[in-house]
UniProtKB/TrEMBL annotation:
InterPro entries hit by this protein: Aminotrans_IV, Aminotransferase-like, BCAT-like_C, Class-IV_PLP-Dep_Aminotrnsfr
NCBIfam families xref list: PRK09266.1 (NF006734)
UniProt record similarity statement: Belongs to the class-IV pyridoxal-phosphate-dependent aminotransferase family.
Lineage top rank: taxon: Bacteria
A Pfam cross-reference name: Aminotran_4
Protein name: Class IV aminotransferase
Matches recorded under Gene3D superfamilies: D-amino Acid Aminotransferase, subunit A, domain 2
């Protein structure tokens, strides 16, 4: 029993059952942290260097200290070993229970996610705060994603107040202008698949650039696509603007991504 008026130790109930007030549990509930998500196949992942750089940079920005990539790899390997799986959808979270506390990492493994199909996008007026971080405060984008899925769409397209296209709720979005890949330059997360694609585009000599893209001008592009940790998908529809459902330039992007090297964790 907890003494009346004594809450020096937080009291927590879940579904009417008292549970230990673990500091990490309270940090998770607070929503201040960051993460990365990856698809693991046979103990390997594409763009591992980008994942480790992301985690280290965000940990420095949020908590004032770095995060050793070797430690992250060890903890993912440990989780894979404990579960006995080689294929998984993995997330690595970083928190500090209280300001000034050392950071803690949490690794979560779920079943591997299959490659996505075409993504139909519905635009919504929303810009993620501190969009350059893959932070855990995702209520806004989750809210809009659920709403557009209820309307029959697959993904929400986040649009700034001035009409600039930024990113998807859980994807980066790009366009094709002739042979050139166009990434919107509005504030957005540099997704790992996007970074891998940019590296492979450079290797293949395919031009790409960032530039402002307004929602009211997307119809001028020849094709559109979306990408995240589960792969690259054609975008056949944005609101009422239709694009080719399986254009050759998007097939080329998928082939470049699928040919990208896998890194041993």
């Amino acid at each position: 029993m907890v003494a009346m008026n004594d809450l020096s130790t937080p009291y927590v109930e879940v579904d009417g059952r008292a549970v230990d007030a673990d500091p990490l549990f309270l940090a998770l509930m607070g929503g201040y942290g960051h993460m990365t998500a990856m698809q693991i196949r046979d103990g390997r992942v594409r763009g591992l260097d980008f994942h480790l750089t992301r985690l280290d940079a965000a940990t420095k920005e949020l908590f004032g200290e770095g995060l050793d990539g070797g430690l992250v790899r060890d903890r993912i390997r440990r989780a894979l070993g404990e579960t006995g799986v080689r294929d998984a959808s993995a997330r690595v979270y970083v928190y500090a229970p209280e300001p000034g506390d050392r950071t803690v990492t949490a690794v979560i493994l779920r079943p591997a996610v299959p490659e996505p199909g075409p993504q139909r996008l519905r635009s919504v007026p929303y810009a993620r705060p501190t969009a350059h971080l893959k932070h855990v405060g995702v209520f806004g984008q989750a809210y809009h994603l659920r709403r557009v899925k209820a309307e029959g769409f697959d993904e929400a397209l986040l649009v700034e107040p001035d009409g600039s296209v930024a990113e998807g709720a859980i994807t980066n979005v790009g366009f094709l202008e002739g042979d050139t890949v166009i990434w919107p330059s509005a504030p957005a997360l540099d997704g790992i698949t996007m970074l891998v694609l940019q590296r492979e585009l450079d290797r293949a000599g395919v031009p790409w650039r960032r530039q402002p893209v307004r929602l009211d001008e997307v119809a001028r592009f020849g094709a559109a696509f979306a990408c995240n940790s589960v792969g690259v998908s054609a975008v056949p529809l944005i609101d009422d603007v239709r694009f080719p459902p399986d254009p050759e330039p998007v097939r080329m992007l998928k082939q470049l991504y699928e040919a990208a090297p896998w890194d041993v964790i």
